[in-house]
């Protein structure tokens, strides 16, 4: 093969490589017109920079969950003082009032600082539980109180733990630590009533397969 032919082949190879890069770039923008998404699935535009680090969708959802927890657990703890039949359930209700009042003050202050809009009403499920509890008294109230609140705390515990483990914002991380401790405390208190139906709680998901060696 002479020099002219070799030079021609190299030119063809370069042009082919350039064509591939152009096609690949176009494909990326067709798939993700707003930019490449992060490992969490959130686009860069979903994050906002703050003095304490970036805040993303999971961070905002965490603050909303804490706020809504207080919006139904504080009045439910107050309701328990009149409707519960057990002194222990009434005592647990007082812990809910005290702890969520403090958390609510903290979450509203932090949300204002990080420019996160918080709800002013409980979510649909929480409103349904409140309506259900308002029809019960005595022993029936105690059982429903323990079951509904223990199940709710189990769900929020998982969500808060994920944020605590992965958030990039130092203030969210610090507050998530507080929230994890409070939720764990409340699960333990609710279980101490002896009225939680553990068989009704959702089964933990199976563990992820071990990585192959």
Automatic annotation (TrEMBL):
Signal peptide: none annotated. InterPro entries: DUF4142 (IPR025419), Ferritin-like (IPR012347). Gene3D superfamilies: 1.20.1260.10. It comes from the Bacteria. Residues 58-188 form the DUF4142 domain. PANTHER family: BLR2558 PROTEIN. This is DUF4142 domain-containing protein.
């Amino acid at each position: 093969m002479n020099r002219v032919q070799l030079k021609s082949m190299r030119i063809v190879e370069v042009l082919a490589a350039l064509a591939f890069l152009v096609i690949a770039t176009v494909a990326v923008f067709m798939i993700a017109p707003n930019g490449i998404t992060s490992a969490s699935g959130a686009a860069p535009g979903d994050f906002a920079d703050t003095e304490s680090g970036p805040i993303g969708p999971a961070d905002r959802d965490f603050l909303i969950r804490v706020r809504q927890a207080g919006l139904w657990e504080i009045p439910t703890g107050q309701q328990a003082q009149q409707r519960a039949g057990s002194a222990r359930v009434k005592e647990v209700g007082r812990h809910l009032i005290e702890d969520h009042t403090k958390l609510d003050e903290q979450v509203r202050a932090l949300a204002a600082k990080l420019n996160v809009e918080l709800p002013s009403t409980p979510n649909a499920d929480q409103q349904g539980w409140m309506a259900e509890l308002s029809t019960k008294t005595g022993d029936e109230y105690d059982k429903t109180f323990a079951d509904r609140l223990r199940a709710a705390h189990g769900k929020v515990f998982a969500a808060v733990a994920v944020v605590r483990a992965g958030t990039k914002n130092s203030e969210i991380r610090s507050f998530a630590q507080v929230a994890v401790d409070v939720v764990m405390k409340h699960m333990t208190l609710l279980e101490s009533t002896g009225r939680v139906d553990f068989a009704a709680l959702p089964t933990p998901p199976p563990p992820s397969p071990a990585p192959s060696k």
